[in-house]
Amino acid sequence: MNKKPQQPPDEGNGDIGCDLERLDNLLRRGLNEISDIEIDEITKGMSDEEMESYATTGIVRSEYSQTKKIAGIVFEEQIQFIVENDLDDADDIPVESIAPLRTVPSETKIAEYTITETSHGEPDDILRLYDQEYQNRSGVTVRTDGSRFLFYASRPGKVVLFRNRLFLMAADKDASCNVRIAKDAMEAFIDCTPALGDGRKLKFSAVLDLLEKNNVIRGIDKAAIEKAVGMVNTKGLSVRKIVAARGKPPQNGKNSEITVHFPTEVPDIGFTILPDGRIDYKKQAPIKMVSSGDLLASVSEPEPGTDGYTVKGEILPAEQGAADDILEGDNVRRGETGDRFYAECSGVVSFHENVLNVYPHYQVEGDVDMHSGNINFNGSVTILGSVKSGFEVKANGDIFIAGSTEGATIEAGRDVRINGAAVGGNNTILRSGRNFFAGHVQNAQIEAQGDITIVRSVMHSFIYSTGKLELHDKNGSIVGGMVNILRGIEAMSIGSHIGTQTEIVVGSDYLVKRRKAELKEVMRFHEANLAKIDTVLRPLMSIVKKGIPLGTEKKRRLGSIIDKRFNILKQLRVVRRHHEELLEIDPLSINAEITVRNTLFQDVTIRIGNCAYRTTDDLKAVVCRMNADRKSIELVPFSSVKKPREASRP
Question: How confident is the model at residue 51 (pLDDT cuts 50, 70, 90)?
Answer without folding.
Answer: low
